[in-house]
Amino acid sequence: MLKDREFYLRRLHSLLGIIPVGLFLTQHFVVNHYATRGPDAFNAAAHVMEGLPFRLFLEWFVIFLPLMFHAFYGLYIGFTAKNNANRYGTFRNWMFVFQRITGVFLVVFIAWHIFETRFQAAIGAKEVDFNMMADILANPFMFAFYVAGVVAATFHFANGIWSFLVSWGITQSPRSQQISTYVSIIIFLALTVIGVQSLFAFV
Prior knowledge:
Elements: H1 2-18, H2 21-33, H3 39-50, H4 55-80, H5 85-88, H6 91-122, H7 130-137, H8 140-167, H9 174-202
């Protein structure tokens, strides 16, 4: 019974990492990329998102709650998993290790990012706009922190797609898993370029 519950919790954890968390990550990067067109373009895109109907409901039940479950259960998996990269040294084992490392880092990064942006807006201290991000990223340490956060997020999501396809039985053959590896690498590179370009646009 306990194994069955853990099986379904891991399936749910995997699913939420793709839908809706992964989709929100992609959408978030697309909105941020408007910064490359200038402050007005970014502010207009950000205000569209803020003006969505039922925004608080969407934020909590489509983003925050799924994200918290994925994060906290992911920490449980990360700290109870038996990493064997040093023993076997295969590509997939190292991806397993990096998935856990980036997951732990992302819990810290996302919590800080939400505090610096959404929380500040919620208490009326600041407005989420181009100037807010420019002020944050003007600090070289914070810029490096955000670059690390973007790379960690894109890797975690892209590699998570590979894991999702395997755990849900979509890619069962070695050939299909090899193809999904290539696809996940392309997704990682594409989203990383989009995310890092956005950060440079703010500075």
